[in-house]
Known about the structure:
- The structure is a homodimer.
- Chain A is of the alpha/beta class.
- In chain A, 44% of the residues lie in helices and 16% in strands.
- The first copy, chain A, is built from twelve helices and ten strands.
- In chain A, the strands form two sheets. In chain A, strands 4-3-1-2-9-10 form a six-stranded parallel beta sheet, with helices on both faces.
- The model of chain A is unreliable at 1-8 (pLDDT under 50).
- The A-B interface holds A 36, 39-43, 178-180, 182-183, 213-214, 216-218, 220-221, 253, 272, 276-279 and B 36, 39-43, 178-180, 182-183, 213-214, 216-218, 220-221, 253, 272, 276-279.
Amino acid sequence: MMGCVPASASPDPRADAGRRPIGVFDSGVGGLTVLHELLVQLPQEDFLYLGDTARFPYGERSPEELARFSSQIAEELLRRRAKLLVIACNSATAAALPILERRMMETTLGVDVLGVVRPEAMQAVAATRSGRIGLLATPTTVASGSYERAVSSVDPHVTLQAVACPTLAGIIQAGEQFDERAVDSVREACLPLREADVDTVILGCTHYPLIKPMLQRMLGPSVTLVSSGAALARQVEHALSTRGLSNPRQHGEGDYRFLCTGEPESFRELGTRFLQMPLGEVERVELQSVEALA
Amino acid sequence: MMGCVPASASPDPRADAGRRPIGVFDSGVGGLTVLHELLVQLPQEDFLYLGDTARFPYGERSPEELARFSSQIAEELLRRRAKLLVIACNSATAAALPILERRMMETTLGVDVLGVVRPEAMQAVAATRSGRIGLLATPTTVASGSYERAVSSVDPHVTLQAVACPTLAGIIQAGEQFDERAVDSVREACLPLREADVDTVILGCTHYPLIKPMLQRMLGPSVTLVSSGAALARQVEHALSTRGLSNPRQHGEGDYRFLCTGEPESFRELGTRFLQMPLGEVERVELQSVEALA
C-alpha cells in the first residue's frame, strides 16, 4: 500500500539513504514554524515540505478524511524519496499518526513517522519543576484531550491547565498579531495560566511560535515555552541517528523545497512570515486519490 | 548640568523611584531589538524609547557630534523621569558612554547608564568553552576595536574573530532579509567564523537579531549567539535591584512608549517589524540644543 514506491525512484532503498530529504507536511503554512526549528536545529539535512493548502483548514474535517488526506500526502512524499515523515499539524497527528505509523512499519522502507503532541508533552514534563504545565491550543485540540493523554502517559502526577483559544490562530494567520485585538486575546489566554501558576506552557498550535515574545512577556521570563518544532527536532535527530540515516553532509546547509496543493504564490507570500527565512521555489502538486493507492 | 530636572517633575527624587520608566535610545529603529528583549525579560518595568530618526544614521557622525546628541537625548529622557538609561546603539555607546556615565554620576539622581558592547563581551566570554569568539558588526564598529578591548578586558586569553558586514544592516532595514542577496551576505559573513571554529558569536549590531534564525542555521546549532538585548537585560536587572529601583508591580506588564525626532508614522511602520510586538503611540519630540543645557 504505502510502501509501493516505484523501483525506478529508488533502485536500492539503502543506498545513499542518509542523503534523502525529510518530509514535513501540514494543512497549510502553520507547519512552517515547525520546519523553521528543524532548519535551525538540523542544518545539514534536506527538507521537503508539503502544505495541503487546497483543503485548508483541517480543523473541522472528520478523522476519516484526515487519515485519507495524510495517507495521500505521505505517499507523495515517499514517492519523492523522503527518509522520515513529520506531521506538523495537530489535527492530522490526532487523526492519522497511528495509521501512518502502522503503514510505514509494514513497508520494507521502514520509514519513521513523527507527529506533534507527544514530543511537546515529553519536553514539557522534562522542563517543569512544579509539576504544573499549561497548554494553549485551538478548541478542537483542547477538546480532543490528546495533550492530557500524552502528558499523563509520560508522568501521571503532572497536571495540565488547558486553555482553548478560538481566535488566536486566525489572528496570526491574517497577519494581525501585533494589533490591539491580538494583545487582548493573548492576555486573556494567559490569565488562567498565570492563575494556575504553571511554570511550563505548551504551544499546542503551530501558529503560536509567531507570538512567542508576547507570550513570554505576559507569562513572565521564568516560564518555559515548549513549541512543536523545538521538541520535534530532537526526536527527528534521534530517530535518524538510531537508523543510521543522518545526512553525511559535512559543510554548508542542506536545501529545502516546497510543495502545495493550492496557489503557489499565496503560499509563498504567507509562508515567508511563518518560516522567518527565505522561501525558495514552491511547486504545485496534484495528489493522487487514496482509492488509487488501495 | 544633566541632572537639572525641574523640581515640579520630581518633587522628591527618591519617592516612588521604582515606578519611573527605563529610558532606552538609539539613532533609529535598530534599538527596538534591544527593547524587545528588555520587554520580554523585564515585563514588570515601564519603558520609554527615543529614536533619533531625524538624524539617522549615526554611523558616519563624529564622536563629538554623537556625544552632543546623546547628551540631548539623555536630558530629554531624564526630564521624563527615566530611572536608568540604556544606549541601544553601537556608535553612540562608543562615543558617549564614558561622558554620560560621568555626568550622571555627578548629579544627585545618580542615574545609571548602560551601553551595548560590554554586556555582550561579558556574556560571550561566559558562554565560550573553546575561547574562540566571533563578532559580526558594521565596518565602523569593527574598525573601532571596541569589542576587542571589551573582550580582552574580561579575559585576555579569549580570541575574537571579527567580520565586518558592510551591507547587512541596510538589507535588514529595507526589509529584504529574506531574499537571495541577504542569504548570500549572511553566508559570506559566516564563512570566516566557521573557518575560525568559534563556538560563540556576538551580534554586534542591533539589526542582526532579525536574522538570528538564518545565522544560527549557517553557524550550526552548537554555536551560541549573543545579542545586545539579552546581554543588557541581565545588567539592567542587576543595576535596578542593587539600587532598590526595581518596579514594585506584582501583576500585569508595564507599559512602553515611543518618542522620535523624525516622522512618527514611518517610525511606527518600520518599528513594528523590529520590535516584533505591538507598537503603541509614537510621539514626535523636539530635542533642546545641548548649548542651552551647558
